[in-house]
From TrEMBL:
CDD domains with a match to the protein in the record: TM_PBP2
Species this chain originates from: uncultured Pleomorphomonas sp
PROSITE patterns found in the cross-reference section: ABC_TM1
Main localization (coarse): membrane
Domain of life: Bacteria
Entry's transmembrane regions: 24-45, 81-100, 112-134, 158-184, 205-230, 263-286
Name used for this protein in its record: Permease protein of polyamine ABC transporter
Stated family: Belongs to the binding-protein-dependent transport system permease family. CysTW subfamily.
Membrane topology: Multi-pass membrane protein
Length: 290
């Protein structure tokens, strides 16, 4: 009797769990797996089926990546861009997270935290065009420096590689700050005080204690930055101009300008494969830091 009641209780709990999980899994199927399946199919066709043109299955779209050297070169440029942006986000975001977690208290922490998450409250396109107004010749930065300095300067960073870096770092550095903040908050202050009382210098405490304990937050933030940056197209196109041609902008052109969806889908899946390969290669480091 007890066994039957226990089985019935497990079934009841399973039904409740299924009811709670069903909307989430339905959303995953409709919003993630179904579009990915459609894109995978499009990457193997010669023409889009709904255009009315004759089409057939082919691997020529994937072969174009290997036979046309420009795609591989742009992919390497995007990888370099992603690594540089991730590096600068960590360099700028980790100290900010440390100050928020261990230095500031009370309302000052709340005010700075609000400034950190403020970019999430604005449209990404607005942020990028704001940087275009700041970095162009005669823009806000140029005008401000000429008003302060006794000599004439000409700051014109628009349509350059540094402008793309600045725009992307501004967009993604909050991810590093938030993830590192959570890891640093979990470090007990008494552990740091004990290390200091035993004669460890501030640099030793940082190198041997704080950074290793906060490594999960650093790695999580780096992944959150690296993955979207490698395929970014809005910031490079607006802030980079002619120098802003990367792998993500080429994929965008295939969909919205050239209307070659099969090639765009194939290039997208090659990018996905490269990102998954990099994450798999870095998985030992990610597991050790977790």
């Amino acid at each position: 009797m007890n066994g039957n009641s226990t089985l019935a209780a497990h079934r009841s709990q399973g039904m409740k769990a299924a009811q709670l999980l069903f909307p989430a899994y339905l959303w995953l199927v409709l919003a993630v797996f179904l579009p990915l399946s459609a894109m995978a199919f499009f990457s193997f066709v010669t023409e889009m089926p709904f255009t009315g043109k004759p089409w057939s299955m082919t691997v020529a779209n994937y072969a174009a990546f290997f036979t046309t050297g420009i795609y591989a070169k742009l992919l390497l440029s995007s990888l370099r861009l992603a690594f540089e942006v991730t590096f600068w986000c960590v360099v700028l975001g980790f100290p900010a997270a440390y100050v928020l977690a261990k230095v500031l208290k009370g309302r000052s922490r709340e005010a700075i935290f609000l400034l950190v998450i403020l970019p999430f409250w604005s449209n990404g396109l607005v942020r990028v065009f704001s940087w275009a107004m700041v970095l162009r010749s005669g823009g806000i930065l140029d005008t401000l420096l000429n008003a302060v300095l006794p000599f004439k300067v000409d700051i014109d960073l628009i349509y350059s590689y540094p402008a793309v870096i600045i725009g992307l770092v501004h967009s993604y550095v909050p991810y590093i700050v938030l993830t590192c903040y959570l890891s640093l908050q979990a470090i007990d202050d008494s552990v740091i005080e004990a290390a200091r009382s035993l004669g460890a210098s501030r640099f030793t405490v940082l190198r041997r204690l704080i950074i290793p304990l906060s490594l999960p937050g650093i790695v999580a933030g780096a992944v959150l930055v690296f993955v979207p940056v490698i395929g970014s197209f809005m910031e490079p196109r607006i802030l980079g101009g002619r120098t802003g041609t990367f792998y993500g902008t080429v994929i965008e052109d295939q969909f919205v300008a050239v209307f070659n969806w099969p090639l765009g889908a194939a290039l997208s899946f090659i990018l996905l494969a490269v990102v998954l390969f990099i994450l798999a290669a870095a998985s030992p480091v990610i597991r050790r830091s977790a």
